[in-house]
Amino acid sequence: MSKSSKAKRDQRKKQQAKRPFLRLNGQQQVQNHAVLTNEEGHVVAAIGLQGRQWLLAIGGQTMGNAENPVPMLAMLQHLANVQEKEGRKVTLEYSDLIKQLLAALAADAGQTPEEYLAAQVAEFEKVQAEDEVDAAVEGESAQDEAVAETTDAAPAAEGDDAAKPQA
Known about the structure:
The protein has 167 residues and is α+β, with helices and mostly antiparallel strands. The chain has helices at 5-15, 70-85, 96-109, 113-163, and strands at 31-38, 43-50, 53-58, 61-66, 90-94. It has a five-stranded antiparallel beta sheet with strand order 4-3-2-1-5. Strand 2 and strand 3 (53-58) form a beta hairpin. The termini are far apart.
């Protein structure tokens, strides 16, 4: 090793850009931008921004993430509508940033922000209605199968009695 290697190394370190201190918990904090609260004031669901990623949390669990929060907002509005139909009072509040994003998307679609959000919510309601119809059809087909099985089993049981020798 040369006599000047330490001096060169020290000079190189001085010329390098300063690095910020790394923290153990390096994740960025989540900033809430939409909050669905119940009548007791408890948060039922929320949409937050962490860095550049939008997060959806329901019941304290992160359920998904996206680059666009408007579909998640529509989901929360649909959830609020369902809760109100069940007789629970809930409140959905959202930030100016989400209002601006909603207005921009609505303008692209040639609608007002309220119309655009209502159309998004209608899609969720349509999907829920289709799921309910599918569940009802599956329930009816299961009942039909059960009836068919009992009618098929009944003649076999009678036939077994007839086949037995009588004393």
